[in-house]
Specification:
This protein is α/β, with parallel strands linked by helices. Helix content is 40%, strand content 14%. The strands form 3 sheets. Strands 7, 10, 11, 12, 13, 14, 15, 16, 17 and 18 form a 10-stranded mixed β-sheet that branches. Strands 3-2-1-5-4 form a 5-stranded antiparallel β-sheet, with helices on one face. It is globular, with a radius of gyration of 27 Å.
């Protein structure tokens, strides 16, 4: 099963809710995962003592979220240590009456050993390809069935540890014993009776223009990889985003969805729309790309005009301004299918002038228009972790809520049409320039006799550490330039960002320099490789 692929995650054994019965079969414990709000029943054989395996686990998973979870463990242990010291002071007299001096000596030595263990040096903070994940899996790869809770199961008394806890031997104090790394695949969890069922995904954040207040609940350490869905039955399913379950984290809109363009980004978006239960009609310039999605339940549209005319909201994600215009204005294009009330959402990264022109012609036919370019790459698209920048029709933005939750982790509404295009170009300008700088540094290290791997290790320990940095450096070190974000598209975005600067007479010398390096890489036939292939512009 696909649900068995997560790294080990730190957690602690806690008492389960009183009405939650332990599953039958192998011995297991109820575990709360650090850095998250998730719990699960975990089999005994999948639990390991925290201190004994800490360094090993950190080496396996260097993700930022995992590091935050480890930090939460260390904070918990520090607080526990303080409480233990306070409580032990009151009980020492009684213990002293019962224990011989030799036994006291042994306890003292054990306590010192525990203190030394708790005060180990600061943990490494690597930033590998860690995805946002809450629950974890061990090295086992077998599929695991979700655990279900029913209301008629006999309750367990609170305040009592699981009766099998005595069988778990961990050489720590009684409190620290409950801290371990555990594994979990997925589970179902009904909300409490007093908790109203919500239609939105609590892991997804909307940000409106000029919004300064933070969301009421901030799930910084919560994964989108585990989707929460509160079904009509009142139960909440938590499943991996790449599972084949139709129910995901949201209640899908009942509107018919169209999608035009099944490239690196569009393919992942459509896949997630389908997994979350949306009704989707697809079209692509090369029709064979549609076959996979037809098998997953999508409908096939013969032309963009047909898709728009048969769907309520049609999304498009194509390569550049010319492709975006041709899609709308060309023969059997989007515009021919627009009637009053039809909605068009352009997710392509284009310039503000292009998107403004498209908005005008759509609205002139009575249609509604939203621009919604996305920040991310193929992997983030597949994982449903894109960042969506939207602008235009605010009502349409809200109508797209379930779709945006299926494909992304966050959406921003930026006001009038054109704002999202400008912001997206600025974001990609920064990203593209940074990528060129990474390549420049790695090649300079090589020609001056320095280890490129050591350079990466140093950067990963500093303030520049990021998933992007680590992934792109790994691409270069491994010579793997399979496209996650086409080099030709980041060069296009740099070109459009420079033009944006020109339009307001603002200097963009860093972007201009980076653009020249990408143009050199394109001349070396790197257009269809990943943007990290800009490295090759420096070694020819």
């Amino acid at each position: 099963g696909k649900l068995g692929r997560y790294p080990p995650w730190p957690g602690k054994i806690v008492n389960p809710p009183k009405d939650l019965k332990k599953p039958r079969g192998k011995k297991c414990f109820f575990v709360k995962f650090f850095g998250t709000e998730d719990h699960a029943w975990i089999k005994v054989e999948q639990l390991k003592p925290y201190h004994a395996h800490k360094e090993e686990m950190i080496k396996i998973n260097k993700g930022k979220r995992f590091q935050q979870a480890v930090d939460a463990v260390e904070e918990f242990l520090r607080k526990t240590k303080g409480k233990d010291q306070a409580s032990s002071h009151n009980s020492n007299e009684e213990k002293n009456r019962r224990n011989s001096s030799e036994e006291r000596g042994k306890q003292s030595a054990a306590e010192e050993k525990r203190k030394a263990s708790l005060s180990e040096g600061k943990l490494k903070k690597g930033t590998g390809e860690g995805k946002k994940r809450v629950s974890s899996v061990s090295s086992e790869r077998g599929s695991k069935s979700p655990l279900k809770r029913t209301q008629d199961q006999s309750p367990r008394k609170r305040g009592r540890p699981p009766k099998d806890e005595k069988d778990l031997t961990i050489p720590e104090s009684s409190t620290v014993k409950r801290v371990m790394t555990g594994t979990v695949a997925g589970f179902k969890w009904p909300p409490s009776v007093s908790e109203p069922v919500k239609d939105s995904d609590p892991h997804f954040h909307h940000f409106l223009l000029s919004q300064t207040e933070k969301p009421a609940v901030c799930y910084q350490a919560i994964t989108k990889k585990l989707k929460v869905c509160e079904e009509e039955t009142g139960s909440t399913s938590i499943q991996a985003a790449d599972s084949t379950a139709v129910n995901g984290s949201i209640t899908p809109t009942d509107k018919k969805i169209g999608f035009l363009g099944l490239g690196l980004m569009g393919s992942g978006i459509v896949s997630n729309l389908l997994k979350m239960g949306h009704t989707v009609t697809v079209w692509n310039r090369t029709a064979e790309k549609c076959d996979l999605f037809i098998q997953e339940g999508a409908r096939l549209g013969r032309t963009p005009a047909e898709v728009v005319s048969t769907c309520d909201i049609t999304f498009a994600c194509v390569s550049d301004p010319k492709a975006a215009k041709d899609l709308v204005l060309g023969p059997s294009g989007v515009l021919q299918g627009i009637r009053p009330g039809k909605c068009y959402v352009d997710m392509s990264t284009v310039d503000a002038d292009t998107v403004t022109e498209l908005a005008q012609v759509i609205v002139s036919r009575g249609g509604r228009f939203l621009e919604a370019p996305v920040s991310g790459n193929q992997q983030l698209s597949n994982d449903g972790m894109l960042v969506i920048l939207a602008a235009g029709d605010r009502g349409l933005y809200e109508d797209c809520s379930s779709c945006f939750q299926a494909m992304g982790k966050t959406s921003f509404f930026l006001g009038e049409v054109g704002n999202a295009a400008k912001m997206m170009l600025i974001v990609n300008m920064v990203q593209g320039s940074f990528m060129a700088t990474i390549a420049e540094g790695l090649t300079l290290a090589q020609v001056t006799g320095q280890s490129q791997q050591t350079l990466l290790d140093i950067l990963n320990q500093g303030q520049l550490a990021s998933i992007f940095l680590d992934q792109k450096c790994q691409n270069i070190l491994q010579g793997n330039f399979k496209p996650d974000f086409y080099l030709k598209y980041i060069q296009k975005d740099l070109r459009l960002a420079i033009a944006l600067g020109d339009s307001v007479n603002h200097p963009t010398p860093m972007a201009a320099a980076a653009n020249e390096v990408y143009k050199r890489a394109k001349a070396l036939d790197q257009s269809d490789n990943d943007m990290s292939a800009v490295y090759r512009a420096y070694i020819h």
